[in-house]
Write a structure and sequence with these properties.
By secondary structure, the protein is α/β, with parallel strands linked by helices. The chain contains 5 helices and 11 strands. It has 2 domains: 166 residues, Ribonuclease E inhibitor RraA/RraA-like (Glucose Oxidase, domain 1, 3-Layer(bba) Sandwich); 38 residues. A hairpin with a 2-residue loop joins strand 8 and strand 9. Helix 1 crosses helix 4. The protein is elongated and about 65 Å long.
Length: 222
């Protein structure tokens, strides 16, 4: 029997919660969560294919300017920066935000800090990070690779993986599993909607979960 849901690409995940995607990934034994990263402000959300960057600390006495990469990022991408959670300097500010918006970038995810928070919030640009700090990354960290696999808080992010973020955090869907995860998400959404409907009609949680085979979607730990 043909599945009534059809995966149409990364935009199919628009409007889907990170919690539901995380539950779907759990059923496949995949950890897609980027622990410790949150939105710069409430109500921010994004979805799109990852464009990856990795920064390293400079050696003592080494000079390193800000990474010049923004013009290379494809339209519609989400920039994902691996900066090893560093809090002593930043790798993103207002000028990069302006450029990203003008270039059609959908948002930025940083395993590290951003600065110019007030300006970024005024621009309503989706940004997720471990925090904010004012010190520049110039001569403190350097860009060492772009558009290659990176590690963000223990999770591998590959170029083109689908990044989804909302008030609950950031989750990454492997591009090779996108269709399977999407179909599982729709199944879970439908099941949860049915349970919610039952609850509103006076059915107990226990009975509703039995009726709709809640345990069919048992989560796997990893």
């Amino acid at each position: 029997m043909m599945n009534k849901f059809v995966y149409s690409g990364p935009d199919a995940f628009m409007g889907v919660s990170t919690a539901c995607v995380s539950d779907a990934l759990d059923t496949f034994g995949i950890n897609g969560g980027l622990a410790g990263l949150g939105p710069l402000g409430p109500g921010m959300s994004l979805v799109g294919p990852a464009y990856t960057l990795r920064f390293e600390e400079v050696s003592e006495g080494e000079m390193a300017q800000a990474g010049e990469y923004i013009d290379d990022v494809p339209l519609g991408s989400v920039i994902v920066i691996a900066n090893e959670g560093r809090r002593f300097c930043t790798v993103w500010g207002d000028l990069l935000t302006h450029a990203a918006q003008l270039n059609g970038i959908r948002g930025t995810v940083i395993d590290g800090c951003c600065r110019d928070a007030t300006a970024i919030l005024k621009l309503d640009y989706p940004l997720f990070s471990v925090g904010t700090y004012m010190k520049s990354g110039k001569n403190r960290v350097k860009l060492v690779c772009k558009d290659e696999p990176i590690d963000v808080s223990g999770t591998v992010v590959n170029p083109g993986d689908i990044v989804l973020a909302d008030d609950s955090g950031v989750v990454v869907i492997p591009k090779t599993m996108a269709e399977q995860v999407y179909l599982r998400v729709k199944e879970i959404e439908e099941m949860e909607n049915n349970i919610l409907c039952d609850l509103k009609n006076g059915v107990t949680m226990k009975q509703s979960r039995i009726t709709h085979q809640y345990n069919k979607y048992a989560l796997k730990t990893n």
